[in-house]
What we know:
The protein has eight helices and twelve strands. It is α/β, with parallel strands linked by helices.
Amino acid sequence: MSNQNILIVEDEGKIAQVLRDYLEKAGFRVAWLDRGDKVLPLVKQDSPDLILLDLMLPGKDGLELCREIRKFSQVPIIMLTARVEELERVLGLELGADDYICKPFSPREVVARIKSVLRRLAAPPLQEKLVAGPLSLDEQRHQVLIAGRELSLTPSEFGILKVLLAHPHRVFSRGELSAQVQGYNFEGYDRTIDTHVKNLRKKIDAILPGQEIIKTVYGIGYKLNKV
């Protein structure tokens, strides 16, 4: 049985109960909140292993919560949303969410995604640092340095950079990055990878402006540029 704790933040009781039932059957411990303004104190006190975060919440919405959680924690966040507009999904990812799932969804798919994320985080860390030019990645410390300065990355951003650094001459398709980083490749996830790469580039550019460290290979995907 798993001893990992999942926090569900969802104001629709029926949806929350279905998710809770499936997750508990899968061996997880589950906490549930139905208001956004209750979330931050609980996250700071109990440190859940993953958060399922609804976008539309009373008290405080999911996007604002995601932004505030990322100020003090890199806990994986999967956003739940009934909005189909791409803008809402992309904005959530830019604020630090790792993934999103659109309603209506299959509870089995939600459980599968959660297991994949947690399995990835539990994988044995690399024994050696990955280094390329000014970039240095230490998985044991979950630390990335660029030109001696530390980058604050979400788990997905860290995972993408680790894959590219480990294979500096290889071009990865979006599907391959999704499978390597998230452990799955569901239809429609390509745009999510694009957003994670965009965020990663923005953080790198803040320290090393004008250097294209992650190169787009049009029609294929991404690779690490010569640095």
